[in-house]
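User: Can you recover a sequence for this backbone? Please restate the input before giving your answer.

Assistant: Of course. Working from this structure:
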């Protein structure tokens, strides 16, 4: 019997969105998937390795630099960043230089991170998580497929989605592979820009539905058995509240970059302290700040995001669901929808729907790596 598995990862398509946006109703087995703390930078590695962030090492897109950093040359441009007219050009030139010379094939974006701070940071993920060997010492799904000698094809954010779907359909027509892995991030970006209920969001969901159904139609003509699984890494929540945490911290009598080093994400604010006075005052501010809370060590340990070397911060503040920090290093204006809240907050769950009965034990994104590996082995005829 010739079998095929189609595994489709739709970034940010949370379980609660399935109730509001009819999607693939023919797939009756559907369930929420508990996610992990952080953004896709932690969730997707957890999904593809089965490990917690403190096990695979990737929590945020940016961590504190060690002895080396790929951003050392940012110092050459930082002096001009805030000057009229030439500041924008200096930043654009640096971004082009970095893209050309960094050799990094994992997703990254410089956003609005001040160039003067970039040399203090590093990218924990430099190799694409969608390739074997992405994390040294931690095998991912694609390592396992190679280990079992299972041929596969995969597509991700690095090429345009329309091209990816066309290639997926063409590859299925050849009917040479038992396993196809497809990742799309378009819905995530559209919801950030327009919200979870917009016409643009509905259009992307419908487009994905049509493209996936076409992939299944082609596969059913070529294979005796086709298994389809569609899943996500986390959910998405409409933004209802904005806090200017950056402004509040900067109002304290300390010098940013000297007394403390900050990193302002959309829902997290992280700080590394360089003197006790700054630490005491900033922690006090974070403990009383509206719209979020300072995460205690016990909570970080419970969420499996405690890093003893403080690579991701000495103090970590997390906003409440629906609240964002703006301005931040991500941009000056708040998005319409956001994720990266506490994994137990409403709207944070990912989802899984399938054409075959899904084992009861698959309840978290961390269960997906083993589940997909077993499905691939079954389709290839090398597993149960």
């Amino acid at each position: 019997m010739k079998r095929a598995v189609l595994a489709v990862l739709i970034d940010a398509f949370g379980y609660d969105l399935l109730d509001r946006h009819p999607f693939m109703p023919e797939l009756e087995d559907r369930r929420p998937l508990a996610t992990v703390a952080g953004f896709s930078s932690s969730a997707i590695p957890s999904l593809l390795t089965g490990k917690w962030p403190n096990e695979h090492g990737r929590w945020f897109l940016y961590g504190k630099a060690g002895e080396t950093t790929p951003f050392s040359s940012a110092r050459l441009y930082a002096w001009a960043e805030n000057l009229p007219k030439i500041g924008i050009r200096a930043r654009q030139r640096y971004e082009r230089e970095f893209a050309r010379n960094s050799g990094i094939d994992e997703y990254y974006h410089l956003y609005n991170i001040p160039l003067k701070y970039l040399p203090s940071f590093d990218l924990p993920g430099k190799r694409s998580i969608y390739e074997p060997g992405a994390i040294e010492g931690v095998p991912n799904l694609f390592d396992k497929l190679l280990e079992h000698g299972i041929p596969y094809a995969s597509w991700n954010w690095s090429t345009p989605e329309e091209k990816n779907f066309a290639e997926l359909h063409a590859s299925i027509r050849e009917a040479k592979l038992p396993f196809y892995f497809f990742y799309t991030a378009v819905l995530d970006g559209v919801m950030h820009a327009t919200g979870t209920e917009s016409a643009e969001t509905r259009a992307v969901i419908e487009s994905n539905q049509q493209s996936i159904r076409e992939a299944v139609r082609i596969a059913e003509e070529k294979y005796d058995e086709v298994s389809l699984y569609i899943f996500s890494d986390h959910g998405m929540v409409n933004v209802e509240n904005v806090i200017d945490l950056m402004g509040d911290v900067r109002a304290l009598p300390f010098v940013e970059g000297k007394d403390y080093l900050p990193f302002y994400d959309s829902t997290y604010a992280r700080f590394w302290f360089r003197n006790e006075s700054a630490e005491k005052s900033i922690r006090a501010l974070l403990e009383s700040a509206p719209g979020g809370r300072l995460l205690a060590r016990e909570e970080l340990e419970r969420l499996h995001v405690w890093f003893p070397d403080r690579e991701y911060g000495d103090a970590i503040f997390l906003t409440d669901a629906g609240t964002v920090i703006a301005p931040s290093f991500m941009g000056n204006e708040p998005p319409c929808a956001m994720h990266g809240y506490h994994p137990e907050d409403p709207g944070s769950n990912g989802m899984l729907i399938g054409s075959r009965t899904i084992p009861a034990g698959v309840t978290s994104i961390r269960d997906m790596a083993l589940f997909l590996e077993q499905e691939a082995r079954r389709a290839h005829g090398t597993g149960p």
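That completes the design. The longest strand covers residues 3-10.
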